[in-house]
Structure formats: structure tokens, C-alpha cells
Amino acid sequence: MGSDGRQHEHCCPVFGVKNGGPISGLGILLILFGIVPYILIPETMPAVIAFFVGFGIFLVWIGIAK
């Protein structure tokens, strides 16, 4: 409760905004960082690519869910 008797909404926005735009954008960027090296150099480490793409998909999902 605040000093004026009202309850304040508990909100913890990421990057200072309440919508999921920046999170989704970061996720898309990570997906691109995983896919582009695989297209240019096919023998790139698949575990690193899977990590980047997987975490990027997770961030896009979190951004859409907001």
C-alpha cells in the first residue's frame, strides 16, 4: 500500500515498456543469429545454433504472451 491508501499495481516491465515488442524483437534477432551462420557455414556447431534458435523462440513466445 502506498502512503495515500491506494494499492499500486505490481509491474516489472522489461526494457521500460509493458508490451512484449522488445522481447519479441530480441528473440527474432537471436533466431537470425542462429540461422544465418548455419546458412553461410553449414559445419557450424549445431548445439550453439540450437541454443540461439531455441532461446529466440522462447523470447518470441514470452513477448507474444504479454
Verbal overview:
This protein has one domain (1-66). It is built from 2 helices and no strands. Helix 1 runs antiparallel to helix 2. It is an all-alpha fold and 66 residues long. The longest helix has 20 residues, at 21-40. 9% of the residues are buried. It is elongated, with a radius of gyration of 18 Å.
Morphology: elongated
Structural class designation: mainly alpha
- H/E element sequence: HH
Radius of gyration: 18 Å
Write the layout of secondary structure elements.
Layout: H1 21-40, H2 46-65
Helix pairs in contact: 1-2
Tell me briefly what this model is.
This protein has helices at residues 21-40, 46-65. The chain has 66 residues and is mainly α.
List keywords for this structure.
mainly alpha; 61% helix; elongated
